[in-house]
Amino acid sequence: MSRKDPSRGLLVSPIRNGTVIDHITAGEALNVLKILGITGSTGECLSIATNVVSKRLGKKDIVKVENRELRKEEVDRIALIAPQAKINIIREYQVVEKKGVEIPKILKAVVRCPNPGCITNTNEPVESTFEVREKGLRCLYCDWLIKDDIANFII
Amino acid sequence: MYHIISIRDFERRDLDYLLDLAQEFDTGNYRPRMLEDKLVALLFVEPSTRTRMSFAAAMARLGGRWISVDSVEASSIVKGETLADTIRVLSGYADAIVLRHPKEGAARLASEFATVPVINAGDGAGQHPSQTLLDLYTIRQSMPVDGINVGLLGDLRYGRTAHSLALALSLYGTTLHTIAPGGLEMPANITLELRERGMKVIEHEDVQEVLRDLDVLYVTRIQRERFPDSASYYNVASSYRITPDLLAGVKDHLMILHPLPRAGEIDPAVDRTPYARYFEQARNGVPVRMALLDEVMR
Predict the structure, then answer these.
(1) In chain B, whose CA is at the least distance from the CA of A144?
(2) Is the confidence metric ipTM above 0.90 for this complex?
């Protein structure tokens, strides 16, 4: 019985159908999954590579989600932490669509308001809503401004 | 539908329009009983004397009626009812809702669930637009608001009246001088926003540094509950007390305002000086709130 040379194997194999999110800021792959609502129990077959050598970014992360084509509004949410990310939609091993991410003007239910006195941190039936501004994210309920560490507040 | 939620929603012309309208009500230039077929719900989920009673007085002077929740304990809020549900229910009873709530953003939330206009009567450390309008109204009775020097003294961190007023003043080219005890300074994001709006904001350690340059001194209560013990409270509070002696050499037209209630920030002896305008300010709550009620229910 012959064995393949392990040094020639692929780090992550190509997927037949689904989405590849490439050029994610190194170390943010798990946060990207969190934003997309993908957890170990949601059923998708996932491949994650972190700190892969990249010509453009030095290091990058890659996420592959099989049998799921992510919609534009889903992927735009990850622009907050991975503004360079590229989305590749794969069908039968071929890239059929390639697009960048754009930060949306309004973020709904993506980020938790850090203000403990904000009405969105209660049992009220509302989703946290932030306006994306140049200086950071502003809560549309209590006006709190998140300037840094946005990933810490991702729901 | 017209809600009054935050000073941020207003442009200068909107504020001037409401202040002019308040002036009309103040001088008696309005149709008696103009809101006689209207009913307003006063939902105060936090203690209030002046705001609640002046809204009730304003409604009564316009010939309208009001229903109110007098205490949280006596309402379904203690049973865990959400504000959203309470607002939906009250929308079926009244033609407008006036809301005071301890959480920031409560009025914005209420406006999303209400089918009648909502007026924010103070939400946590957030906004208190009707107070700001009456503050501006009081200043405008004595001097144009444009380009004046305004000092904000006291708890500028949690004091919602200070935040709302500062934002409104930024529309009038005023210079803002802030004087606050350590730990109770104006939140950095608000100072940043004021500067982005083109306002000159100068921070001071001591009120005496700037008192003689001021046209308006706006004093807010230093809240005892913000301090770890009463000794540190008295220590700070005594250094922020306005006394007649301190007022030597101030501008003749200096106006001292305070949203009230006061704790010890203003010596009662100051009440007898021509600078004290806080009771007049409180009285102005009625014509200003008449204007707001008329505007949202007209």
Answers:
(1) B189
(2) no
